[in-house]
User: Fold this.
Amino acid sequence: MAQFRGTESYVASRELEVAVNAAVALQRPLLVKGEPGTGKTVLAQEIAKALGYPLIEWHIKSTTKAQQGLYEYDAVSRLRDGQLGDPRVHDIANYIVRGKLWDAFEHETPVVLLIDEIDKADIEFPNDLLLELDRMQFFVYETRKTVQARHRPVVIITSNNEKELPDAFLRRCFFHYIRFPDRETMEMIVRAHYPDIRRDLLREALNVFFEIREVDGLKKKPATSELLDWLKLLTIEDMPPEALRSSDAKTAIPPLYGALLKNEQDVHLFERLAFLARRRGG
Amino acid sequence: MFAPFILALRAAGVPASIMEYLALLRAMKEGVAGFSVDDFYHLSRAALVKDERHLDRFDRVFGEVFKGLESPQGEAPRELPEEWLRKLAEKVLTPEEMAQIKAMGDFDSLMETLKKRLEEQKGRHQGGSKWIGTAGTSPFGAYGYNPEGVRIGQDKSRHRRAVKVWDQRQFRDLDEDEALSSRNMKVALRRLRRFARTGAATELDLPGTIGATARNGGSLDLHMVPERHNAVKVLLLMDIGGSMDDHIRICQELFTAARSEFKHLEFWYFHNCLYERVWRTNRRRRETERPTFEMLRTYGPDWRVVIVGDATMSPYEIIQPGGSVEHWNEEAGQVWMSRLTRHFRKAAWLNPVPQDHWRYTQSIGILQRLMENRMYPLTLAGLETMARELAR
Assistant:
């Protein structure tokens, strides 16, 4: 059986490896939660890469219905075709549009199916998928056909915790909570992405990064993806590490902070804090 | 095989079921966990815990069941388990050093002395030659230059492997019964947001479609309309001053965070109990004061009212006219409270005082009754119940 290990571009903790392997071995969905920006979505891509399976992504929006993942019956175009006298109209199968789950079930090889941000959808959404995910089959009423999975796909479900998920659904999943990486792990993650970043620059940047995360009242704390973007900018601009050292009160706002702070209130908050620091310093 | 573990988990309030237990056993059989206790910890956590709020409880129960720690109630264990010390020592000391220790007396007696010292010692200590602390010559403590030194509580991640991850209790912040701090505020606000957002979907505009299809000469022309947004309006009343000063920081945090979450959020202050006047800004109280009647007239009964206050005062401040500590009030606080609850159908009281202490304060009981039992503690669990009650 294929085993999941962290890859060169993705640093996985042992607990994550155990959780993924358990989900793969028992063919149950793996529910992944965690702060935004801790790599929940990337995880599915890495699992697919590690296992050598293709990845099918199903991104959930607030308007997504469970049925859309199975199939949709396009009654409107059938009606139109009927009005225009198209011969296709006689076969109802022409108007069945396959969903992502159907694609995953009928794929020749096993696949990794990512159901991204399941909490965005309606509160009943997970319940509607219970049976389908449990038995890996569903029934198409229009054509009276049962679609059965050829290989049980590896299902990865991510959630940002905006809604509670129903208990019956949770009982069928394995669960993993991605903690925000500590400094050492963060260093490894950065090195995995930018192997030849300057050591002193990275050290100073991480100092600033974790300091910003400590600030109370930020609406959106910068996360891994923001740090990576910021570091990229810093290297492109060829910023000297000294510029990041905030001992000089006038530069309390880090350079190129736009990559780290993503909303206006946060930037304002930061400017105010910097102003206060300057006043105290002066 | 692990039945006592599951039972202990359930007793501690982690809702693990038979199904999850069986899944765990199957995963063990499949050999997912290997044979290390760390792996078993990770595996059982992935299989049995489905909510990050329960992770801390799981850690405590795991520690108790598998290592015989003290029971999960109360504070962190005061006594260092001997086996833990030994492990730490083994990790840090070289074999020669271990031999030296043996020469000094056997390892167990060294541990015994260490335990005794730990008990004798009250505070943190640095330097010196007997007490445990940092930079001393005593055999115990960190950074010491005694070769027999035992390292305690230093550089715990240097081996990049958690000694005992469950003992670190990293998920304590996520437990729902802990009082709110700015860290778990975010999770709490998601709960509040639940009743501020009620579904967004596009639906078929039936009359529009029929009309357009008819105009089109019979060929179908679909029209969609956005679903009506039923934005919930929230009125926040905050108790300020007096006994609330202890809780003011926490409430302010909740309030500033909540302000950005809602589109329709109005806030007013009062002192201790609601009387005939409320005000908008505490600093400019005199200028922003308004009659409570005006507030009741301004906001319709469809507004949800959330009162934040500790409800801790003399009972006279609620039941007697003129009972207010600040001014002469013509009508008693309870009259105003019942006016409020009669006007607003959906109202709730958030109380920062821990719920266990409520019954010792008479005024909390009175207000609880006036609020028709809709008083909730200011914790994640309390907020959740409140949100559910207000959304109903």
In short: Chain A is about 45% helix and 15% strand. The longest helix of chain A spans residues 264-281.
